Amino acid sequence: MVRDPSRDPEPPSVDEVLDALADDAARRIVAALTEPKTASELSEECDIPLSTTYRKLEKLTDASLLSESTDIRRDGQHTTRYSVSFDAVTVSVDGDGDEGDADRREFDVEFSRPERTRDERLADLWSELREET
Hints:
With 133 residues, the protein is of the alpha+beta class. 39% of the residues lie in helices and 20% in strands. Strands 1-2 form a two-stranded antiparallel ribbon. A two-stranded antiparallel sheet has the order 3-4. Helix 2 crosses helix 3. The mean pLDDT is 81.
């Protein structure tokens, strides 16, 4: 299974993004992902219980902050790895800014994503081809 937030048709809400980053454990996980890692590796490196690590990873992935990929192994012991899926996240306030008119102002979240590698683009094409056949 692969979950890639850059391919999600519906971006996450501002609340989902801010909520996912609201606690120290989630921010430590994001900071530790200098390369793709498993939940066990992150749990150990960040000194977070494994069950909590899984919950944080799910929340961060749902908020389009992490991507998830599965390494298929011949022995059947597949490994899921997580990686950061953004270069920058910008939260902004849109609206005319009139005093007392806070209902007309809305928050917006925007992601700057890293360029996809040749291997990732090829995997996307292969997945699309399999879906069509």
